[in-house]
Amino acid sequence: MKVHIEKDLCTSCGICYETFVNVFVEGEEGISEVKDDLKGKDLKDSLLKEAISAAEECPAGAIVVK
Ligand code: SF4
Predict the structure, then answer these.
(1) How do residues 7-48 score in pLDDT, each as one tens digit?
(2) Coil/strand/helix, residue 40
(3) Of 11, 33, 40, 43, which cross-links 27 as Cys (Cβ 3.0–4.6 Å)?
(4) Where are the alpha helices (DSSP H) in 1-66?
(5) Is the pTM above the cut of 0.85?
(6) Ligand 1 pocket check: which of 11, 50, 64 to mutate, most ligand atoms within 8 Å of Cβ?
(7) Using CA of residue 62, residue 48, residue 32, residue 57, what is the dihedral sign?
(8) Which of 11, 46, 51 lies closest to 31, judged by CA?
């Protein structure tokens, strides 16, 4: 499964990149980004768990895991 951020929805709250630091980084103007080396990659194990938790916790519904 891959993780993707709908940047139009992200409100720069910081929850994902402050909590799930192995998957997300703070991008321009506080908008979240998936770490470069994970973009478009199939996530497994702990990284996938972090991505799923972030998707559940994102208040804007901006994190998509599929
Ligand atoms: S948790 Fe959601 S709204 Fe907050 S920074 Fe991450 S993607 Fe953006």
Answers:
(1) 999 999 999 999 999 999 999 999 999 999 999 999 999 999
(2) coil
(3) 33
(4) 15-19, 45-57
(5) yes
(6) 11
(7) positive
(8) 11
Shortest-distance atom of ligand 1 to CA 17 = 6
Residue 47 Cβ contacting ligand 1 at under 6 Å: no
Domains within the chain, CATH numbers bracketed? 3-65 (3.30.70.20)
Q: Which two structure tokens, joined as six digits, stand for 26? A: 């703070």
At 66, list the tokens: 């599929």
Return phi, psi of residue 39, to 5°: -60, 125
Atom of ligand 1 nearest to the CA of 13: 4
Q: How far is the CA of 54 from the centre of ligand 1 (A)?
A: 8
